What we know:
single chain; alpha/beta; 7-stranded mixed β-sheet
Amino acid sequence: MSIFINKDTRVLVQGITGREGGFHTQQMMAYGPNTIVAGVTPGKGGQEAFGLPVYDTVKDALKAHPSINASIIFVPPAFAADSILEALDAEMPLIVCITEGVPLHDMIKVNQVLQRSPKSKLIGPNCPGLTTPDQCKMGIMPGHIFKPGTVGVVSRSGTLTYEIAADLTNRGYGQSSIVGIGGDPIIGTRFIDVLKAFEADPATELVVMAGEIGGEDEEIAAEYIKTMTKPVVGFIGGRTAPKGKRMGHAGAIVSGNKGTAEAKVAALEAAGVPVANTTAEIGDLVVERLKKLAAVK
């Protein structure tokens, strides 16, 4: 089992003929040769890219390939919102937007439409995508660091996602699925959505949640964690960031007392979540918790 994607996922690449879209299409095809089906670039319908057919619109691609059930977006920031809206209009079940720097006012419009689109799930923008090891990769994560297993990983930071997964793999512990939700103030899928999916996934024994300063998603997730049957290990990035200064991600900014690392750590610890002080400690906490789980079985 897994969450969101598996070997049966069939992916459309929006922006397949661009530099980023082209490079990562080849990387995704190398990871899961049968999962990438076609591409979309307006004005280039009828052409081929990397042996895949290219269409002018998402609806054209779906008409020719009705098995497509997911779309990944690699287009410049100014066009990303329109690409998401096109996929939403086509009722694409899963939409992953990798693009960084999507204007906030564009995402406000997208979010309004997303709320009226119950058939679609959006991950991102400004995210590394998601991977189910040895089954399907949608995004820019390096595939060789993953290994099938029972630890679910969800993170706002792409780099942290890689670091945590690689450390777990090096320790001999694989992952059920890995999801990078993105670091912008307005994103589609949030921590609580992914935690609910991991809680329902029989292949996931434990979840690692890597948050960061800014916003209140971690505090909201902490309230849900109190109801979970599966253990969660936490980490909050940006603990030493000065207040009021944006640190890399658009959503990683602390205003007043909201979104502080201290508040997030306190909320997680109140929910029974051990919170690592450094990324190196995350793996130690995971191993400790998994050994406890094994001991009671």
